[in-house]
Amino acid sequence: MPMLSEPSQKYRPYTPINLPNRQWPSKTFSKAPVWLSTDLRDGNQALVNPMTIEQKTTFFREVVKCGVKQIEVAYPSASDTDFAFVRGLIEKNEIPDDVWIQVLTPAREDLIKRTIDSVAGAKHAILHMYNATSPTFRNVVFRNSKEQTIDLAVKHTKIVRQLTEECTNKYGTKFIYEYSPETFTQTEPDFAIEVCEAVKTAWGKAGLGEERIIFNLPSTVEIAPPNHYADQIENFCNKISEREKIIVSLHPHNDRGTGIASAELGVLAGGDRIEGCFFGNGERTGNVDLVNLALNLYTQGIPPNLDFSDLQNTIDIVTACNDLPVPARYPYAGELVFTAFSGSHQDAIKKGFEAQRLRHQECKAKGEPLIWDIPYLPIDPADLGQTYEALIRVNSQSGKGGIAYLLKQNLHLDLPRKMQVAFYQVVQEVSDREAREMTVDDITQAFRRAYHYGPAYKGRLSLRNFKISTSDKKKSPSDADAESGEDDDETRRFDGTVSVDGVYRVIRGQGNGPLSALLDALRTHLNLDFAIRDYSEHTIADADEGENARAASYVELVPANDRKTTSASQSWWGVGVDTDIARSGLRAVLSAVNTAISDGRELPELKLTLGFHSKSSGQEDVASVIVNQLGLELPRRFQTAFFEVVQRKALEGDGEISVDGVTQLFKDTYNYQNEKPPTNVCMESFKLDHLDDKRRALSGSFTFFGGASRSISGSGNGPLSSVLAALHTQIAGTLSIRDYWEHSIGEGSEVTAASYVDLVYEVEGRKTKLSAWGVATDTDITASGVKAVLNAVNDLDIVMKD
Ligand SMILES: CC(=O)SCCNC(=O)CCNC(=O)[C@H](O)C(C)(C)COP(=O)(O)OP(=O)(O)OC[C@H]1O[C@@H](n2cnc3c(N)ncnc32)[C@H](O)[C@@H]1OP(=O)(O)O
Ligand SMILES: CC(C)C(=O)C(=O)O
């Protein structure tokens, strides 16, 4: 059947009340009403499968836990289950002293009696009786006149009075009487008042405080807009006699979807109390939702006197008992209500949080309240025990702001705006291609992959070690650089070891600052010619203060010849995080370079043969051979020393030397990993003791120039000074350490320590000081240091004491 073109032929409009002086439109909320949960009665009677006693008990406990003080627990005359449930609550002492249970009964003597029996012995009970009063019910359901309708209510109110008094006398139960002119909103307003006046008279003992009678005015079926309900309530409150002896209770249903508005306007119009259900369960479209109402007050800064700080738990309990879901878009409680998918919402939320953080810092300092004001979020999810995790979810409707927010939440990275735009394109591409929502994991992984961020996402280049040193330079106006922290009077030198496609390369460069020095090194050794167009950094907000604080750096690189063009067609972003700010910047540069070279371009390879006639091989090539072949990352001055050795050796021949030849030459020169026994000093054993916090003592068995073994000892502020002190007991002159360096080789249980010592020897009678490098490895760092000293001693022409 089609919908009617003229619905007035079928449906009547509501009849407005003539209330010219209505006050409710200009009233505002100041306090919470009294709440009554009727989940276990009106909610329960609307379920496909009414709740079991166990479910009702669980629900009752949750409602109590949330702070509801009046709970309609049953329609006890309806079923043995309901009756037994009420008895169980009382007999098992489930009802806190400050909670009133309420029970509903029709105006029938036998059922009233059974209802009162159900609450006998409870400390407090609200006896709730109803009969319908509207014309349709009078005519159709009860076939009653107005007078008979009043008589029904009056007669049974008197029965309630008599039976409750008997119960009080016998069991001490304290009663409040609640009467509902059912279908109030469809009843002639004056007739509803007439019935209630008659009921009040029949009850005969309405007083103040706990003696007040409750008149519950249900919109049993919501048939008019909420302003009409408000008019009806204000009209009732104005006209009923002894208003102070009455609690005006509202019982809105939600047939038009305006149950919440009806309840709120009804309170402005004079309602003291609201009956409803959690998440709006109840007959047809449900009763008004108490959670929604309470949280509406809360977001106006008014204490609702209900606690939903673990809202998900409440949802879980209620849905398990009702077997009804809470819809995803349901106010406050729906799964998606704190989630933004769309770009402009996400952007505003992100900006809102940033601005609020700063505003709250200022308010805190001034002792002012930390007022919540975030676009699109009327309530702080944290107040309801919700995390911020689901706040922003990314799909094809999302923008850069939301993605940046998630990265900040999850990786603590606050990307510069231009990098946000660049990464947004990465995410959009995946999201479009896969036509699905991008989870937080998807996004963080995409970020890690795009910028080679994290150990599992290494790019073709990775920094093994580096040293930045400073030397003065002549000032030149062209030296200005985009890098922060640059000092025009000084040149920075980068010396480092970088893994390039798995092969270690020793590279060097110089520039105005660490980053330009690294770029120079990449240009010189790997033909990678980039310039910095943008650089920014921040400390990671959540890191602990002090030692553990980390810095995040962001770099945008462009091809070097595009450096001054702000519109360079191509650019690559990189990110680096480290406890050391210089290192975080260097990592960021390598991250951007890795992105740039992810096109698979070829990089100059380490040569298999080094040539020296044409000076084609440099110190770095020799050092690269050693780090790749032996794992040794020679300190810069050691590189220089060994380079001379290699050059000399190569030039003795045809000017070339193979990689294997270089490696063997190193081993022979420094007696590294060779079986050859030392010529000068041989250490047979040693032991290191701690004298105190600062001093160490080394004792051991040594032979000198193949002689008998001698036990010697010495002390110093560390193992190396101790071994020198011990040697000085036998060797004339002075041995001193000019340079020392150590690093680890390998990882985990396979790790060994490598130590390098530059030893200087002075002895009376010799004009020149001698010096030699020693290198050694050992699983024990102390042993590797001591052995490196001895290797160096063995390369020196030492003189024994007499
Ligand atoms: C708006 C509301 O939510 S009201 C509450 C509704 N909740 C329930 O009905 C749940 C519990 N109800 C029940 O278990 C049953 O209906 C009972 C036990 C109350 C009564 O059961 P029955 O005696 O079998 O009657 P039935 O369910 O058919 O009820 C209708 C009868 O009660 C009468 N009636 C309806 N409401 C009332 C009332 N408030 N006071 C007195 N009589 C009433 C009807 O006029 C009808 O009478 P009739 O049999 O003379 O025509
Ligand atoms: C019993 C009454 C209050 C009722 O549930 C209603 O009218 O909706």
Automatic annotation (TrEMBL):
GO cellular component, one term: mitochondrion
Gene Ontology molecular-function annotations: 2-isopropylmalate synthase activity; metal ion binding
Keywords, comma-separated and alphabetical: Amino-acid biosynthesis, Branched-chain amino acid biosynthesis, Leucine biosynthesis, Metal-binding, Transferase
Reactions performed catalytically: 3-methyl-2-oxobutanoate + acetyl-CoA + H2O = (2S)-2-isopropylmalate + CoA + H(+)
Region (Disordered): 470-494
Pathway recorded for this protein: Amino-acid biosynthesis; L-leucine biosynthesis; L-leucine from 3-methyl-2-oxobutanoate: step 1/4
CDD domains named among the record's database cross-references: DRE_TIM_LeuA
Cited NCBIfam families: leuA_yeast, PRK03739.1
Name recorded for this polypeptide: 2-isopropylmalate synthase
Naturally occurring in which organism (per UniProt): Gymnopus androsaceus JB14
Taxonomic lineage of the native organism: Eukaryota, Fungi, Dikarya, Basidiomycota, Agaricomycotina
